[in-house]
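[agent] plan:
  1. take the single chain provided in the ticket
  2. run structure prediction with default settings
  3. attach structure tokens to the ticket
  4. add a short note for the reviewer (M.T.)
[agent] executing step 1
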Amino acid sequence: MTRTLAIAHRGFSARFSENTLTAYRAAIDAGADIVESDARLSRDGVVWCCHDATLARLTGDSRAVADLTSEELAAIVLPGGERLTTLRDVLARIAPDRPVLIDVKTDSIDLIDAILRDVAGAHAVDRVWIGMRSALQLGRARNREARLSLLAFLPDYARAGDFISAGADALRIWEGDLDRPEAVALLGHGNVFVTAGGRGTPADVGDTTPEGLRRILQCRPKAVLLNDPSLLTGSADADAREPAAQARP
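[agent] step 2 finished; step 3 output follows
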């Protein structure tokens, strides 16, 4: 038996500034199997690891990531004195130690092409998952590189077939939807990732309770996205003590 993989949502974001090298490295230290990193394009076409469209939530700066150059983004100071980082740096510094799940935050084909460029440049094809909400993006990634591991962040569970046909290796569902018939049906697909908290729960995305985590694990997903990966890697649950499953499909 293999245990469910722990994916560090935006790194160890429960304790450190999200999407920073410090958060990613702390996630590895906590035993995370995969480190998740968001991806957006800067004005000059560089992939930066940032969840929101703007910097308002993180810094109070209302400017959009897409409107800023890499030089401007590099100058941004986050809480704790941390800095934003590029996908290129994440692949160079984190992917050698843990697979990286790249969460594509827009439906831009240019963003997909830039991500694929960085992955190829880092020789990290076998060290990444790429998660997308667009079947068109997913199909392009699959056509460009057949060896990639691709995750469907399904915008609608009824569209799972479209994403599987486009080449998805795994499907994501929400903790709050685990009782929905359409989500239950997808659990039989085999490769299902569950995002803790968020939609349908009172918790922030990536957060959950011990009871919530036990409920997720009872569904036998391939992986769980958590802000605190130690909730899973340090769990006393018998399943969590089993050797980790492979991070690729």
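[agent] step 4 note for reviewer: Confidence is low (pLDDT under 50) at residues 235-249.
[agent] ticket updated
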